[in-house]
Amino acid sequence: MESRDVSTAPDLPDAAGGPDDAPLVQLVTPAGSRVTTPEAEAYRERVAHLDPAALRGLYRDMVLTRRFDDEATSLQRQGELGLFAQAKGQEAAQVGSARALATQDYVFPSYREHGVSHVRGIDPTARLRMYRGVDHGGWDPAEHNVHLYTLVIGSHVLHATGYAMGVQRDGLVGTGDPERDTAVVAYFGDGATSQGDVSEALVFAAVNNAPVVFFCQNNQWAISEPATKQARVPLYRRGSGFGVPSVRVDGNDVLACYAVMAEALERARTGGGPTFVEAFTYRMGAHTTSDDPTRYRSRAQEEYWRRRDPIDRLEALLRAEGTWDEAFAAEVAAEGEALGERLRTEVRALEAPPASTMFEHVYASPHAVVDADRSWFAEYEQSFEPADHVEGSTR
Amino acid sequence: MSESTKTLTVARAINEGLRRSLERDQKVLLMGEDIGALGGVFRVTDGLQKDFGEDRVVDTPLAESGILGTAIGLALRGYRPVCEIQFDGFIFPAYDQITTQLAKMHARSGGRVQVPVVIRVPFGGGIGAVEHHSESPEALFAHTAGLRVVSPSTPQDAFTMIQEAIASPDPVLFFEPKGRYWEKGEVDVAGAGEGARVLDRARVVRPGTDLTLVAYGPTVATALRAAAAAEQEGRSVEVVDLRAISPLDTATVVASVRRTGRCVVVHEAPTFLGSGAEVAARVTEECFYSLEAPVLRVGGFHTQYPVAKIEHEYLPSLDRVLDAVDRAFAY
Ligand SMILES: Cc1ncc(C[n+]2csc(CCOP(=O)(O)OP(=O)(O)O)c2C)c(N)n1
Ligand SMILES: [Mg+2]
């Protein structure tokens, strides 16, 4: 079947279309059939080994990521989380790219990469510690080679680049050993591309030929600003001025995202340097639970993209190829239920840390000012008679 | 002079300290603009690229946020980057990375990651420079928890403190008094970095009984000259070199002021909300009953750093320090 360009919605008055009507890599059409064009041949080869079980695995990852989103959103609505940012609509971009990673690869996410952290194995409850307000981070970055979520837009793209320069110095690029060669990935958004730090990261990555992949999820919105406020040309073209090979991929096509990422990672690992990937997708939900998208985008646009839901597309492919399995779907649904149940229990059980923890880890070695503040606070706390600790005390 | 003692300038002492750190730890690397073949615009890294190679003494792209951001990434990977910011006034493109990332990452991770990045900043004025080349932004960084902020005043301290800063598990802003780069002093180059840590300890440079002059970096020499001049008038002035703005070694200052009863703080940065204000507040709180006079400050004005032809009217000169000493005795 023929590839159909779904990147633009010219019939929609406020589609973020403008600069985004450029060709993009696609392996599965929204209707769920394989793209057979000769241009896609090289990418098809990169997913040829993904058998029906592997495809169902990707489906499972995406459904569980969606379920995580839904559950966290309702926990926020119930007052159990202070804030939450959904990945909804971006599951294919995140799961597809993350499944192409090797264990030794290292990821620098921004704040809605729940599909990536799911794939890397980060405990789902740990991912919500920050959003509940009990932690600024939540997990040990060394455990799954995933750095903490970064909230300052674009900052971590430089950290990823520096980390990749470190990998290079460690001699872990181009060894020919697939267990050792290491790549680093920075995940960031369309809005982030305007930050100076992202441009500086492209400069440092290019001149050092660093093994880093710039994975930009163009979800067409930076809170209320459409991507047309960030650029007049498709975002993937940002790379070329820096001498960084760039590619635009259908971000709602999990196989295409896998293939494009596999190619970029291979380039990084073998010493070919950085790649800029633009995954063209759509943020189906609000920016965060504090946002109201009805103020800046149309129902029609949301509906247009709802019909291009990346999870539906993979299901359509599995059905079209006769590898959809009702028993498996039921299993995934049950797993989703269990995940929801677990999050409801575990998140509610996350207690506020003792106030004194704010004095911990301010520095890695003793600091007289912090020590003095800590002792003052401890004495102040102790100065209250036990009776003062009754609820409603005004201190 | 012992075998291990050499006469070095402040710049050369830092160079020697960097060399030792590079020799001692393969993970140490220097990053900055023009620090390689040129040896830095002040020649502080002179000869180091030749001896340690382009991979360890790295000429970076001209992008301060990029330098700091990639240094953070390298530190996360186990390296110990020492970044040179060419001049004080050019640290601001990196201010975001320093304050929102470098300062917070250890705490954000609950102590799981360390980011031992050193940022060398030639700072201070008096060199007849154009705009942005004479500033003293140390308070902006000391105000941020998670950063250590230090400034050496002598070749010996420069040599020792740069090595301690590099060995520190915390990020350190290392403010180098550029106006004193060429001043010479004896440096014991044996065993530095292994003795008691001086990085965050103030020291009494000159003992005295009637007034404490508190200074750091470029103003320590001014304070010493003031103490010598005051002695002619029969006043015994003690000089304390803070060495660190963060952490502030309050104990040493307080012990001194309890003895002398008077305190004057001297720095080049504007006095308004400067580090002297913090010293004054702490001394007032802890030495209230020992004080014969309010704590006074001598420093820059709340103006843009002035043009070179009049900068000496802005900087805390010997006369302005002595004037403050007189005022303290007049109470
Ligand atoms: C430096 C900075 N400026 C502003 C913000 C506030 N902010 C948070 S998310 C966001 C939009 C980011 O858009 P994009 O990069 O497209 O990522 P997305 O949220 O769409 O995933 C903004 C402006 C911020 N976090 N950091
Ligand atoms: Mg966006």
Automatic annotation (TrEMBL), chain A:
<dbReference type="GO" id="GO:0000287">
    <property type="term" value="F:magnesium ion binding"/>
</dbReference>
<dbReference type="GO" id="GO:0016624">
    <property type="term" value="F:oxidoreductase activity, acting on the aldehyde or oxo group of donors, disulfide as acceptor"/>
</dbReference>
<protein>
    <submittedName>
        <fullName>Pyruvate dehydrogenase (Acetyl-transferring) E1 component subunit alpha</fullName>
    </submittedName>
</protein>
<feature type="compositionally biased region" description="Low complexity">
    <location>
        <begin position="9"/>
        <end position="24"/>
    </location>
</feature>
<feature type="region of interest" description="Disordered">
    <location>
        <begin position="1"/>
        <end position="24"/>
    </location>
</feature>
<dbReference type="InterPro" id="IPR001017">
    <property type="entry name" value="DH_E1"/>
</dbReference>
<keyword id="KW-0670">Pyruvate</keyword>
<feature type="domain" description="Dehydrogenase E1 component">
    <location>
        <begin position="60"/>
        <end position="335"/>
    </location>
</feature>
<dbReference type="InterPro" id="IPR050771">
    <property type="entry name" value="Alpha-ketoacid_DH_E1_comp"/>
</dbReference>
<dbReference type="InterPro" id="IPR029061">
    <property type="entry name" value="THDP-binding"/>
</dbReference>
<dbReference type="Pfam" id="PF00676">
    <property type="entry name" value="E1_dh"/>
</dbReference>
<keyword id="KW-0560">Oxidoreductase</keyword>
<dbReference type="InterPro" id="IPR017596">
    <property type="entry name" value="PdhA/BkdA"/>
</dbReference>
<dbReference type="GO" id="GO:0009083">
    <property type="term" value="P:branched-chain amino acid catabolic process"/>
</dbReference>
<keyword id="KW-0786">Thiamine pyrophosphate</keyword>
From TrEMBL, chain B:
<dbReference type="InterPro" id="IPR009014">
    <property type="entry name" value="Transketo_C/PFOR_II"/>
</dbReference>
<dbReference type="InterPro" id="IPR033248">
    <property type="entry name" value="Transketolase_C"/>
</dbReference>
<dbReference type="Pfam" id="PF02780">
    <property type="entry name" value="Transketolase_C"/>
</dbReference>
<dbReference type="Pfam" id="PF02779">
    <property type="entry name" value="Transket_pyr"/>
</dbReference>
<protein>
    <submittedName>
        <fullName>Alpha-ketoacid dehydrogenase subunit beta</fullName>
    </submittedName>
</protein>
<dbReference type="InterPro" id="IPR005475">
    <property type="entry name" value="Transketolase-like_Pyr-bd"/>
</dbReference>
<keyword id="KW-0560">Oxidoreductase</keyword>
<dbReference type="GO" id="GO:0016491">
    <property type="term" value="F:oxidoreductase activity"/>
</dbReference>
<dbReference type="InterPro" id="IPR029061">
    <property type="entry name" value="THDP-binding"/>
</dbReference>
<keyword id="KW-0786">Thiamine pyrophosphate</keyword>
<dbReference type="GO" id="GO:0000287">
    <property type="term" value="F:magnesium ion binding"/>
</dbReference>
<feature type="domain" description="Transketolase-like pyrimidine-binding">
    <location>
        <begin position="8"/>
        <end position="183"/>
    </location>
</feature>
